[in-house]
C-alpha cells in the first residue's frame, strides 16, 4: 500500500523502536533523526509541562542540525518533524525527579552483578543479588504515564503539541521475570524501565486506563490530530 503522506514528508525525531513501529503501522513513510539534548537541564512545575518542553527541545535541536546541514530542500511538499517524550510517575512527581537516576543506577548495578554471578558460577562460587527497587515498585502496583507529542511544520513554521496521561495497573510480577528482563538489558534504554509490549511484561499487566500506544511512547490518535493541525 502507498504511504498516507504522499503530499508531505515526515521526520521522526526519536530513536525509539516502539515509536518507529507505531508510526509505520499508522501508514506513514518517514525518515529518522535523533536529538542530543541534556534532558536533566530542563525542569518544569509539573509532569505535563515537562514532557512538552522536552519534546520541543528535541525538535529545536534537530531543527538546528537541519539548518546547519541544509538538509531541507525547497519544494511544494511540507516537511513535518515529530518529536515526543514519555515519563513514568510511579508514586509522585517528587519520585519522578529521582526515579530515572535511581532506576538507571540500580539496573546497571544489577547487570554488573549478574555478569559477576555468572563469572563466579563458572568458578564454583555463588553470589546472592537483590532485585532493583524500580522493578519491584511496578509489581502489584500502578504507574501513571505522561507523554507528549510535538509536530513541527518545518516548511510553514507551525508547531502543534499536546500531552496525554494514562494509568497502568500490574499484577504481582515474579522475581524471576524481573531478573530476566534486567538480564536481557533492553529495558535499560526504556523510559521508566518498562516495556508494556514486552512478552515477559504483558502477561502481568492488569488494566490500562488510556491506550497502549500512548504508554509505548506515541499515541496514534493524538499524533494524527497534531499532524492535521500542523498541515
Features:
20% strand; single chain; Maf protein; 231 residues; alpha/beta
The assembly state of the depicted protein chains is: single chain
Helix content: 40-55%
Structural class: alpha/beta
Tally of DSSP β-strands = 6
Protein name: Maf-like protein DDB_G0281937 isoform X3
Organism: Nicotiana sylvestris
GO molecular function: nucleoside triphosphate diphosphatase activity
Keywords: Hydrolase
Q: Could you describe the 3D structure shown?
A:
- This protein has a single domain, classed as Maf protein, CATH 3.90.950.
- It contains seven helices and six strands, in the order βαβαβααββαβαα.
- It has a six-stranded mixed β-sheet.
Brief digest:
The chain is 41% helix and 20% strand.
SSE blueprint:
Blueprint: E1 9-12, H1 17-25, E2 31-32, H2 47-69, E3 79-89, H3 93-122, H4 133-138, E4 142-153, E5 158-170, H5 175-184, E6 205-209, H6 212-216, H7 220-230
Parallel strand pairs: 1-2, 1-3
Antiparallel strand pairs: 3-4, 4-5, 5-6
Region (Disordered): 114-138
GO molecular function, one term: nucleoside triphosphate diphosphatase activity
Keywords: Hydrolase
Amino acid at each position: 500500500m502507498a504511504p498516507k503522506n504522499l503530499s508531505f514528508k515526515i521526520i521522526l525525531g526519536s530513536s525509539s523502536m516502539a515509536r518507529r513501529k507505531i508510526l509505520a503501522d499508522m501508514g506513514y513513510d518517514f525518515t529518522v533523526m535523533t536529538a542530543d539534548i541534556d534532558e536533566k537541564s530542563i525542569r518544569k512545575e509539573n509532569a505535563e509541562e515537562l514532557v512538552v518542553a522536552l519534546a520541543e527541545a528535541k525538535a529545536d535541536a534537530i531543527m538546528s542540525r537541519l539548518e546547519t546541514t541544509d538538509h531541507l530542500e525547497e519544494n511544494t511538499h511540507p516537511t513535518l518533524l515529530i518529536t515526543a517524550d514519555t515519563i513514568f510517575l510511579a508514586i509522585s512527581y517528587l519520585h519522578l525527579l529521582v526515579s530515572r537516576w535511581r532506576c538507571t543506577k540500580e539496573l546497571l548495578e544489577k547487570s554488573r552483578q549478574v555478569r559477576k554471578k555468572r563469572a563466579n558460577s563458572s568458578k564454583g562460587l555463588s553470589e546472592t543479588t537483590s532485585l532493583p527497587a524500580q522493578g519491584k515498585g511496578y509489581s502489584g502496583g500502578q504507574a501513571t504515564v505522561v507523554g507528549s507529542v510535538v509536530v513541527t511544520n518545518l516548511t510553514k513554521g507551525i508547531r502543534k503539541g499536546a500531552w496525554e496521561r494514562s494509568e497502568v495497573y500490574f499484577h504481582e510480577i515474579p522475581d524471576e521475570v524481573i531478573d530476566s528482563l534486567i538480564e536481557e538489558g533492553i529495558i535499560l534504554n526504556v523510559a521508566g524501565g518498562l516495556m508494556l509490549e514486552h512478552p515477559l511484561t504483558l502477561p502481568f499487566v492488569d488494566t490500562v486506563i488510556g491506550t497502549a500506544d500512548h504508554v509505548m511512547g506515541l499515541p496514534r490518535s493524538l499524533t494524527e490530530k497534531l499532524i492535521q493541525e500542523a498541515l
